[in-house]
Design brief:
This protein is of the alpha/beta class and 369 residues long. It has two domains: 2-131, 3-Layer(aba) Sandwich (Creatine Amidinohydrolase, Chain A, domain 1), CATH 3.40.350.10; 134-367, Creatine Amidinohydrolase, CATH 3.90.230. Helices cover 32% and strands 24% of the residues. A hairpin with a 3-residue loop joins strand 13 (332-335) and strand 14. Helix 3 packs across helix 4 (106-115) and helix 8 (249-268) packs antiparallel against helix 9 (275-288). The termini are far apart. The structure holds zinc ion (3 copies). Residues 220, 237, 239, 344 line the site of one zinc ion.
């Protein structure tokens, strides 16, 4: 699996005319070699020549955490009195064109640029983004496991098993976080709980507002799966809304338009359609009901080792979807001071059509507790 990824990366480097790829903190490194750099002031850096052996420079005290993959890279621990920037620069040698990981700290980039004055630099994301956007079978399997985990929580929410009325948004958010860890995730990435008028803020920060009878509660949550050492985790991300009591007819009507928009966008997500067209499908359904003015964000984002990555389903992204793309489809409407709603599933684009990984009911659940 990692060897195949490495081959794809080397091919893309060749096409882009890149001599050396360098990766430090962020998700590119675990995606490529299974090791995640500690976000320390100490330098971690993979140096991958387009041909030749890759070297992974890590602080010596981190070496025990590295699962060695000799067929892919050689581990080079550096001690507290060595100069890792000099070691990395020496490994890069006379390379002229370097692709540097997007999340590398500028301190290290600037020091390396001083040491390698003749090199030309570009962000590694332009090479790795399109590769990471096409998931292999193992990645789809892990994304499915992540999605199935949060599906169980969403079902519990809809079944009224997660108490809402009388609790604060923050309490429910903490409850969701605990459950995320219980269903096979190693990390909680976010657990948005937004009640009533707060649901009109798409990324509302759950606070001490108490949830009352007769309002919408929007829950958007996800984490990163726990994996064995040497394997990256994959992200989940789901949004469901419930109503604490019988919802008013106006909300029911708007919500059913939203569910329709979400369903039609999922059905449109086939190989070959431009990413922006899928966004357009949902927007048009909302527009027909006058709700598009309240749909104030893009339709979706890719998902994998990162919670947000390529491809982005947004107006202006003309790139066609490909089999293996995994992304959210999450239209919403947000009416300031009143209420809001969003429905979000993760979908994989396949040759036989869109495959939703989340299978929890889309109907607006009424909960009494
Ligand atoms: Zn979001
Ligand atoms: Zn979400
Ligand atoms: Zn999302």
């Amino acid at each position: 699996m990692f060897s195949q990824r490495l081959e794809r990366v080397r091919t893309a480097m060749g096409v882009a005319g890149v001599d050396v790829l360098m990766l430090s903190v962020g998700s590119d490194l675990p995606w490529l070699v299974g090791y995640e750099a500690m976000p320390l002031e100490r330098l971690t850096m993979l140096v991958l020549p387009v041909d030749g052996r890759a070297e992974l420079f890590v602080p010596a005290l981190e070496v025990p955490r590295v699962l060695e993959r000799p067929e892919i890279f050689r581990v080079r621990g550096w001690t507290e009195t060595e100069d890792p920037v000099a070691m990395v620069a020496e490994s890069v040698g006379a390379a002229e064109s370097i692709a540097m990981g997007d999340h590398t700290w500028s301190r290290f980039l600037i020091q390396l640029q001083d040491r390698l004055p003749r090199a030309r630099w570009q962000p590694a994301g332009s090479i790795l983004g399109p590769l990471r956007a096409v998931k292999d079978a193992r990645e789809v399997e892990r994304l499915q496991a992540a999605a199935s985990g949060v599906d169980r929580i969403a079902r519990a929410l809809q079944n009224g098993e997660i108490p809402l009325i009388g609790r604060t948004e923050a309490e429910v958010s903490a409850d969701l976080g605990r459950r995320i860890l219980e269903v096979g995730h190693g990390k909680v990435n976010f657990a948005i709980v937004a009640a009533g008028e707060n649901a009109a803020s798409p990324h509302h920060h759950p606070g001490d507002r108490v949830i009352e009878p007769g309002e919408v509660v929007l829950c958007d949550f996800g984490g990163t799966t726990a994996e064995p050492q040497g394997e990256p985790g994959y992200c989940s991300d789901i949004t469901r809304c419930v109503y604490t009591g019988e919802p008013p007819a106006e909300f029911v009507e708007q919500y059913s338009v939203l569910a329709d928009a979400q369903r039609q966008a999922v059905e449109a997500a086939k190989p070959g359609i431009a990413a922006e067209e899928v966004d357009r499908v949902a927007r048009d359904v909302l527009a027909a009901a006058g709700l598009d003015q309240w749909f104030i964000h893009r339709l979706g984002h890719g998902i994998g080792v990162d919670a947000h990555e390529d491809p982005y389903l947004v107006s202006g992204n003309h790139r066609p979807l490909e089999a293996g793309n995994a992304f959210s489809i999450e239209p919403g409407f947000y009416i300031p001071g009143k209420w809001g709603a969003r429905i979000e599933d993760i979908v994989v684009c396949t040759d036989v059509g869109p495959r939703p990984l989340n299978t929890v009911d889309h109907a607006l659940a009424v909960v009494e507790g």
